[in-house]
Amino acid sequence: MTGEVSGYDAVAEARSVRNVLDIHWSRICSRLQTEVGEVEYRTWLKQISIGPVDGDEITLHLPTRFLRDWVRTQYGDRLSALWNAELPAIRRVELQVGRPDPVADPAVAPGDEAPADAAPVAGAVDERVAEARSELSRHDLAAPLDPRFTFDTFVVGKPNEFAYACARRVAERPSSPGFNPLFLYGGVGLGKTHLMHAIGSELTRGGKVSVAYMSAEKFMYRFIAAIRSQSTMEFKEQLRSVDVLMIDDLQFLIGKDNTQEEFFHTFNALVDAGRQIIVSADKSPSDLSGLEDRLRTRLGCGMVADIHATTFELRISILESKAAASGVPVPAKVLEFLAHKITSNVRELEGALNRLIAHANLFGRPVTLEATQDVLHDILKAHDRRVTIEEIQRKVAEHWNIRLTDMSSARRARAVARPRQVAMYLAKQLTSRSLPEIGRKFGNRDHTTVMHAVARVTELMERDTAFAEDVELLRRMLES
Ligand code: ADP
Ligand code: MG
């Protein structure tokens, strides 16, 4: 394996795919030669050249209609079976008259299409098989890294600064004690995959470090495919030959006992060999019930970093950065509006902004608050949490053990005033009520009092993590 996980060069990609197909075809040819004998092979099958793969179908070409029909009736099924055994993704063989079209396949020079002229000798086949395996592994083992997900494009704020720092650290010095494995966890759309890709891009930039990134689902799929094609040894070797292994969304392995077991062994082999493991999941290792205990224990042995739910401030920073990158001017009012309305995850926030920008580009109209409400009508409706101010007051009063009536009383003692401010802040965040309306519900207070409360709570949340967590918890309870 090498460090190039690019996967974005289409011609190189087509060429490698082609090489892989050629090599598999060599294997099939030598199989057929033994099965049908030299004479039969030379008479009929030697004339086949391989064409492109489309979906689960590979096209094979024969020079004449007669040959095509003969091969189809005599060897059609056998050819399908052999291809399928070589490459499980191929399920059907299509036989056509003619030669493969070199134009349709940029990777094939005329006369270079297949080793059809002579069956390769055994030694050469072995060599090419080995080549095919490593070629395949490069292609198939790791998913390509998304070039947009870098450290530069990741916006750092309170909720993700620790995870970000850990990711940076691992990218700088992989396999350092205390940071192996790196376990990133957090809710959907909060940047786990982004950070993993950022680490991968950083590490592969020098070209010296080999990185394999894949989702746990892909890991399972590859493992099962390896069992089917009787190549589990190769699969294991491939995995164990990387310097950095990243498995995304590990929670997917819950209940998949065999795959979990395989992952556990791979994990141990790599860590013992001083390689770096990076794993993400939606929960902390200790909360991932359903994962084998010994795996859970090992996962928690390195650095465990969580990404918290976004704060309003972080959402604004992310929106600002993405709007700036798009080149379309988006008024601050619109960004604030979005950050207030779409609180669940960054992916949705990003999606909403992208839609606004696309609209602006398409119709050549500036982004305004009215246009936003119009364009995002459906998204906003889904996010219109029907939380009432009364509900907020009740929950907050319960949380800090004060009387509900104190929400509208004139008492100014800190023990009462602070929860009241939190309730006002949450009312502003979670409802579409205006400041004067909110003020009225809190004992007819002035809208400037509400404004002050919002500013004060925001500031406190930045300074005091425990307080911030309390408020976030309340927000989540009210939202659910
Ligand atoms: P997860 O893997 O945690 O579900 P992703 O990493 O796929 O989330 O993030 C979802 C989307 O939000 C991606 O497009 C990602 O670039 C973006 N995103 C998440 N967090 C941030 C951040 N802090 N800064 C910039 N973009 C972010
Ligand atoms: Mg993800």
TrEMBL record:
<feature type="region of interest" description="Domain IV, binds dsDNA">
    <location>
        <begin position="361"/>
        <end position="480"/>
    </location>
</feature>
<dbReference type="GO" id="GO:0005886">
    <property type="term" value="C:plasma membrane"/>
</dbReference>
<dbReference type="InterPro" id="IPR010921">
    <property type="entry name" value="Trp_repressor/repl_initiator"/>
</dbReference>
<keyword id="KW-0235">DNA replication</keyword>
<feature type="binding site">
    <location>
        <position position="193"/>
    </location>
    <ligand>
        <name>ATP</name>
    </ligand>
</feature>
<dbReference type="InterPro" id="IPR013159">
    <property type="entry name" value="DnaA_C"/>
</dbReference>
<dbReference type="GO" id="GO:0006270">
    <property type="term" value="P:DNA replication initiation"/>
</dbReference>
<feature type="region of interest" description="Domain I, interacts with DnaA modulators">
    <location>
        <begin position="1"/>
        <end position="109"/>
    </location>
</feature>
<dbReference type="GO" id="GO:0005524">
    <property type="term" value="F:ATP binding"/>
</dbReference>
<protein>
    <recommendedName>
        <fullName>Chromosomal replication initiator protein DnaA</fullName>
    </recommendedName>
</protein>
<comment type="function">
    <text>Plays an essential role in the initiation and regulation of chromosomal replication. ATP-DnaA binds to the origin of replication (oriC) to initiate formation of the DNA replication initiation complex once per cell cycle. Binds the DnaA box (a 9 base pair repeat at the origin) and separates the double-stranded (ds)DNA. Forms a right-handed helical filament on oriC DNA; dsDNA binds to the exterior of the filament while single-stranded (ss)DNA is stabiized in the filament's interior.</text>
</comment>
<dbReference type="InterPro" id="IPR018312">
    <property type="entry name" value="Chromosome_initiator_DnaA_CS"/>
</dbReference>
<feature type="domain" description="Chromosomal replication initiator DnaA C-terminal">
    <location>
        <begin position="388"/>
        <end position="457"/>
    </location>
</feature>
<feature type="domain" description="AAA+ ATPase">
    <location>
        <begin position="178"/>
        <end position="308"/>
    </location>
</feature>
<keyword id="KW-0446">Lipid-binding</keyword>
<dbReference type="InterPro" id="IPR001957">
    <property type="entry name" value="Chromosome_initiator_DnaA"/>
</dbReference>
<dbReference type="GO" id="GO:0005737">
    <property type="term" value="C:cytoplasm"/>
</dbReference>
<dbReference type="InterPro" id="IPR003593">
    <property type="entry name" value="AAA+_ATPase"/>
</dbReference>
<feature type="region of interest" description="Domain III, AAA+ region">
    <location>
        <begin position="144"/>
        <end position="360"/>
    </location>
</feature>
<feature type="binding site">
    <location>
        <position position="192"/>
    </location>
    <ligand>
        <name>ATP</name>
    </ligand>
</feature>
<keyword id="KW-0238">DNA-binding</keyword>
<dbReference type="InterPro" id="IPR013317">
    <property type="entry name" value="DnaA_dom"/>
</dbReference>
<dbReference type="GO" id="GO:0006275">
    <property type="term" value="P:regulation of DNA replication"/>
</dbReference>
<comment type="subunit">
    <text>Oligomerizes as a right-handed, spiral filament on DNA at oriC.</text>
</comment>
<dbReference type="Pfam" id="PF11638">
    <property type="entry name" value="DnaA_N"/>
</dbReference>
<feature type="binding site">
    <location>
        <position position="189"/>
    </location>
    <ligand>
        <name>ATP</name>
    </ligand>
</feature>
<dbReference type="Pfam" id="PF00308">
    <property type="entry name" value="Bac_DnaA"/>
</dbReference>
<keyword id="KW-0067">ATP-binding</keyword>
<keyword id="KW-0963">Cytoplasm</keyword>
<dbReference type="GO" id="GO:0008289">
    <property type="term" value="F:lipid binding"/>
</dbReference>
<keyword id="KW-0547">Nucleotide-binding</keyword>
<dbReference type="InterPro" id="IPR024633">
    <property type="entry name" value="DnaA_N_dom"/>
</dbReference>
<dbReference type="InterPro" id="IPR027417">
    <property type="entry name" value="P-loop_NTPase"/>
</dbReference>
<dbReference type="InterPro" id="IPR038454">
    <property type="entry name" value="DnaA_N_sf"/>
</dbReference>
<comment type="similarity">
    <text>Belongs to the DnaA family.</text>
</comment>
<dbReference type="InterPro" id="IPR020591">
    <property type="entry name" value="Chromosome_initiator_DnaA-like"/>
</dbReference>
<dbReference type="GO" id="GO:0003688">
    <property type="term" value="F:DNA replication origin binding"/>
</dbReference>
<feature type="binding site">
    <location>
        <position position="191"/>
    </location>
    <ligand>
        <name>ATP</name>
    </ligand>
</feature>
<dbReference type="Pfam" id="PF08299">
    <property type="entry name" value="Bac_DnaA_C"/>
</dbReference>
